[in-house]
Amino acid sequence: MLEAGNNSELPAIPGKRYFTIGEVSELCGVKPHVLRYWEQEFPSLKPVKRRGNRRYYQRQDVILIRQIRSLLYEQGYTIGGARQKLSGQEAREDTTQSQQIIRQMRIELEEVLQILKQKPPQSGEHK
Hints:
Elements: E1 19-20, H1 21-28, H2 32-41, E2 48-50, E3 54-57, H3 59-74, H4 79-118
Antiparallel strand pairs: 1-3, 2-3
């Protein structure tokens, strides 16, 4: 059956750059074969693969796996439901990030426009 447990019972994530599948398995309370299966089911979960097809997970992968685990094991979502919830979350984050970039670009363009309005024409230039 499903592996139950609370995320609060999980160990703290160490300050390392990369984690092996065994380390992630322990950090997230999920067996390695389940992690490999989730890679197929959740497109956003893509560990770096190195020599010999060894998987190396980064901190954001570990956090994502803990979110997936919580959705499936604690909140009762199906794989499809968890995938939808996570993709909706990513879409909202992308939209927010895009809006911030647009705001910043607008501010910078307005500053450039002000500079151009202040600059007198150089000799040889036409008005």
